[in-house]
Sequence to fold (246 residues):
Amino acid sequence: MEAMTTESADARVGPHDDEPHDGAFAARLNWLRAAVLGANDGIVSTAGIVVGVAGATEARSQIMVAGVAGLVAGAMSMAAGEYVSVSTQRDSERALLSKERRELREMPEEELAELAEIYAGKGLEPDLALEVARQLTAHDALGAHAEAELRIDPDGLTNPWHAAWASMLSFVLGALLPLLTILVVPAGARLAVTVGAVLVALALTGWASAVLGRSPAGRAVARNMAGGLLAMAVTYGIGSAVGVAL
Fold:
């Protein structure tokens, strides 16, 4: 009976199946979030462009030119922005890790005391904190200090190319929905069908972002749909006013 109890207790120890903590999961989560945000931006920005142009003219060719231009420009902007942003973050993390390596090499005792002080500040007894610091330093000094001091995983730095490609491709996929919808649907139902398709897509990206962030889905979906609807309403109003003026 005691063995079964111990075995049951052991089964509860460690990460849950739905809570992986390895660096690879963190990297995947980063580019998945970039992909969801890219798709969302593609949907909203391209929908705003084509709906705005549709407010000014019914010419399919003009709507297509504006939509394709917005798609290409937006995709390149997303890719460049993600690459620059993540590269800057990665450079900063590498610089901090390089500094930590130098300090571990030149002042190991001070670094050991610093690590022990961090764990003591988390509630461990000073002697236990020092022993934990010694064991972690012996196992992986840089990893222990990077995690405790810098909140960085040396083996899990985000790849800027992954984020850039994920953002660009997802932007294109998101942008294709309003662009193809408004071009394929007959002029009489063009706006209504496009707005409906965009709202459904925004509901899905809002739900996906909530799932990835482990937050309430209802609020994210409502916020996403409201933002997209506002963007389309504003651009349509501006397009209509410009069309009348011209």
Summary: Residues 28-245 form one domain. Residues 42 and 171 are 4 Å apart (CA to CA). Residues 60-106 form the longest helix (47 residues). The helical segments are 2-12, 23-56, 60-106, 108-121, 126-150, 160-184, 190-213, 217-245.
